[in-house]
Amino acid sequence: MSRVTVHTLDNAPEDSRIELKSLEAKFGKVLNIHGAMAGSPVVLQSYVALQQVIGDYGTFDARTREAIALTVGNADECTYCQSAHTMGAKAAGLSTEQTVAIREGQVDFDDKLAALLTVAREATLNKGNVEDATWQGALSAGWSDVELTELTTHVALNLFTNYFNHMVQTDLDVPAAPGL
User: Fold this and answer.
1) In the chain, N or C: fewer CB atoms in 10 Å?
2) 134 and 122 in contact (C-beta within 8 Å)?
3) What average pLDDT is seen over the chain?
4) What is the C-alpha separation between 4 and 7, in angstroms, rounded?
């Protein structure tokens, strides 16, 4: 059970309502993560701001963004994020089998994506540290240094939501991701 109130549009703080209404429109309902974030406008506003910057300036397509989220969610053991991003990844064109492979770190269907996700997983597991060979492997696979530095924002956003879910114990309100 969540440690914090999961707000609705009716009881959310005023400074969270516009963003919560927008998220509700996007997802068809107020997801528990967003309702829980709404209790602290700084949390919800920070989440929305990072999403907006990625949407405005990011170079990764939806499939790649979801794959990054699945990788970070798995490495950080966030059940909520793995479940939510499994849905998002499927909507972005990945199969259920591919979402499982991504979470397991065994991406054999796209070498370039695998190299990027290796950087994301290593950074997540090692407090941002990535071996030179891993970085070089991603460059050799076709990623630019600009894309690899952008990856830090995606990892940070996903760690933000993972940590939030861990701290407040967000109740799962989306279908559970397949077991590994």
Assistant:
1) N
2) yes
3) 97
4) 9
